[in-house]
Each structure stands twice: as structure tokens, then as C-alpha cells.
Amino acid sequence: MSYRLSLLLLALSGLIVQPLAAGEADGHLDIYWVDVEGGGGTLIVTPQNESILIDTGNPGVRDPGRISQAVTKVAGLKQIDHVIVTHYHRDHYGGAEALSRMLPIGSLYDNGKFEGMPDNPGKAYFELECEKRVVIHPGYLVPLKSNSPTKPAVKLQCLATRKTFIKPEAVNAQRNNGAEKLHRPKERDGSDNANSVVMLLQFGPFRFLDAGDLTWNQEKRLVHPFNLAGEVDVYQVTHHGLDSSNNPILLQSVKPRVAVMNNGVTKGCAPEVFANLQAVPSIQAIYQLHKNLRPDGKTNNTKNEFIANSERECNGHYIKLSVAPDGSTYTVSIPAHGHQRTYQTRGK
Ligand SMILES: [Zn+2]
Which residues span the domain enclosing 214? Predict the structure, then answer.
């Protein structure tokens, strides 16, 4: 083959494999759960092509590398406009510094340095390169590009952080009378999990809740006496599916239809959590980033088709959710093995 011809073919193949950028091209809002092996790494791409990353995976190059691939190769973007770090545990803030050397980061939102902080991410984290740093607070609205008047609005709001909560009147929250019978207090978690940032994403009628690793007794405060989160379509299973989180009062109050668990091979996916999720009447599907390969996994794994990675040494397959341009439906897929299913948005 001539040199010229091979160059031409190379250029053509580049055109063909170039992914279609999400957003403006198709009007969808996309969410990707990047497999960061039992950490947090949730990437949101708005129809305006803005990227928001909630948590950055573990330290090292594996997780920031997978996130960077998702941003550039899958979503077709060149930077991360907003990074939200829910709390200062390594599986959430750990990849931030390496990520900032792979891709430009716009604004970084976190709890800053606060009095009595139980865990400290250290100097390298606090000095990593980004355009702007913001200490987040309940009620904070992430400043996203202005929405078109003819399309549903994208709204990303902080409902709680550092054990403080948004005021009920700010979200027109309803009293959650009678729900208290679902709450049995559990041993307090004294680590930074309890300080997790809780974010609610809305796109027209579609609602998605990501509460980081918020712990049991704080989860109760999120939905009682007022249900500050309201009902949601999609629930990121809090704390990787560990049973120090996922209080039934939260699950039964937010009434998700789809739950996505960012568990690891042996981390999370606790039997109690799995049972409590299945007991939510509204639930239609539970997705897992990993098959739980612990001995207890015989009873608490979802069906294989809803699991992105089944091997111990996995390829880091992601789960994708794509909300229709009018917000009325959303499709969850695992592109690596062809699973795809569409769900109705509850507000529709
Ligand atoms: Zn975690």
C-alpha cells in the first residue's frame, strides 16, 4: 500500500471512530459511572456539552486514566468544567491531583478546610491546578451554561454537606409524616463520610440523587421530618452499597426506579442493602459496576445483564445513562456487552 493511501485510510478511520460528542449533537443529558473499583467517579455531560465530575476515584493512574478516557474518548470533550469532591476519602478525592495533570479542570467544589474535619486530603490535593475553588454549601447551584428557553433546564443543586441541610422552603419540600417508623438509628460514623456533599441533578422532570458516602443517621435527616430530596428517578447507591448507609427511610422516601451501585469486586453490595433496595416498591432495576465476588454474592448480585464487570481482573467497563432531550425517558446501557433498557421518567 502506498504511503499516501495509508495516510488517507488513517485519516478516514479517524473520522469513522471519532465519537459523536454528546450534548448539542443530540440534545441528551448523559451520565457515566466510570469503574473506579469501588470508589466514586460519576461523569455528567449536559446537552450544552458541559462536563461535571462527581468524585475522582482512587490515587494512582488507573482511575484518573479511566475518567480521562471517558471524558475524551467516550464523551468527546477536552476538559472537565466542574469537579465536585463529596468528601475526603481516598476513593473520592484520591484521583483529583493526577486527573488535573491529564485534563484541564475548571471549578473544583468541596468542603474546603473546616473546623473539626476528621480526615485531611493533604497539601497536594489543596494545591492541585484548577481555574477556581469553591467551598460548597447547602442550596448551592452549580453555575451551568444558560439553558435554551425551548429545552428542559439542567439544574444541579447541593442539598446537604458537612451535616447541614438545605431549608425545606428552598426546595418546597413536603413533610414526610409517618416515615420515622422506617428509621432505626445505627452506630455513628465518625469519619468524613457523614460530611458528604449531597447533589440533586434535574433535567426537566428527570431527577438523579448522588449522596456520596453519606451515612445512615444523616440520611434520615435528608428525608425526615421534610423530604428534602423528593422522589427521584435514579439513585446512586450511597457508599458503594455498604450497610453503614442506605437507610430504608431514605430508600422508601426517594422511591427510585433505577439504582446504580458503584461497588467493587469485594467492596459494598452488602446483603442488607441489596435486600432493602429490592424491597422498594418502585424499583425496576438495580445496576452494579461489579459483580460481587465475595462468598455472600450468591444471594445479593443483580442479574448478570445489569452488571458491567464480572471478572476479578476487569476491563473497567462503564455504565451509561442517557436522558431523552425532553426528559421524558432515559436509557441505561452497558455498551461493552450490549445491554440497553429504557425507563419512563416518574414525573411524566
Ligand atoms: Zn467511598
Answer: 20-344
CA of 41 to the centre of ligand 1 (A): 10
Ligand 1 centre to CA of 191 (Å) is 11
Classify 48 as helix, strand or coil.
coil
pTM of the model: 0.92
SS3 content of the chain, % helix, strand, coil (to 5): 25, 25, 50
CA distance 241 to 237: 6
Provide the residue type at 341 as one letter.
R
What is the 154 CA–ligand 1 centroid distance (Å)? 26
The verdict on residue 110 lying in a domain is yes
In a domain, 205, yes or no: yes
Contacts of 213 (CB under 8 A, 6+ apart): 40, 86, 87, 89, 92, 193, 196, 238, 239, 240, 242, 245
pLDDT tens by residue, 143-200: 998 767 778 889 999 999 999 999 999 999 999 999 999 999 998 878 999 999 999 9
CA of 89 to the centre of ligand 1 (A): 7
In a domain, 236, yes or no: yes
Query: CATH number, domain at 43?
Result: 3.60.15.10
Is residue 273 in a domain?
A: yes
